[in-house]
Amino acid sequence: MVVGWKGTIFTSSDGTTWTSRTSGTAYYLNGVAYGNGTFVVIGHATILTSSDGSSWENRNFEWNKPLSKPSNYFSGVTYGNNTYVAVGWSGRILTSPDGITWTEQISGTSKNLAEVIYENGSFLVVGYSGTILTSPDGITWTARSSGTLKNLNGVAYGNIIYVAVGYSGTILTSPDGITWTERDSGKSNYLSGVTFSR
């Protein structure tokens, strides 16, 4: 499944032939997760759910009541420990057991959050100004020292190591998501994503 700007959703069973789906929104879509039989898509003031990837329903989270936080722009979502976790600008974190009912959590930061993953029994979030947060349940969050003030955009786990990437060629690695070491990429390019091929 692929999501993108102006409500774009494409699905494919083989990665070769793609079908455009009607999302029912014109907002930007930034992330998608699957768990417990449900797809969840998040974006700008948008949460969509689907059981099959074809028909989508817009979930009306209370966007006008952001617990004193100004942004409704959500950038990443994942599923783990029977919980969906969505992250976004101004330190916003939402959790849901089913993709339908969402609860806002206290992240402890006002920095923009870019991506969230679930690995090794823990959620891990990266964001702007070197922000890294971890949580066992998506509710209680702990800030970790990244050793950088550069914006972080992406994070992945594989081969017993976490890797985070970001602005100005930034690459960080960690064996546990807690202690981080900056690596020399040899580049100053904007790095937006990272993955591991299993």
Write a concise synopsis of the structure shown.
With about 200 residues, this protein is mainly beta.
Structural summary, described in words:
- With 198 residues, the chain is mainly beta.
- The chain has no helices and 19 strands.
- The protein is globular.
Key words describing this protein structure:
globular; mainly beta; 198 residues; four-stranded antiparallel beta sheet
Question: How many whole angstroms does the radius of gyration measure?
Answer: 16 Å
Average the pLDDT over all residues and give the rounded result. Answer: 94
CATH class: Mainly Beta
The fourth-level CATH homologous superfamily is Kelch-type beta propeller
Read across the widest sheet, the strand sequence of neighbours is 4-5-6-7
β content, as a range? Answer: 35-45%
Envelope shape: globular
Helix count equals 0
**Overall strand count:** 19
Helix amount: under 10%
Structural class: mainly beta
Distance between the termini: 19 Å
Largest sheet: 4 strands, antiparallel
CATH fold category name: Neuraminidase
Please give the structural blueprint.
Elements: E1 2-3, E2 9-11, E3 19-21, E4 29-35, E5 38-43, E6 46-50, E7 57-58, E8 74-80, E9 83-88, E10 93-96, E11 103-105, E12 113-119, E13 122-127, E14 132-135, E15 142-144, E16 152-158, E17 161-166, E18 171-174, E19 181-183
Antiparallel strand pairs: 1-2, 2-3, 4-5, 5-6, 6-7, 8-9, 9-10, 10-11, 12-13, 13-14, 14-15, 16-17, 17-18, 18-19
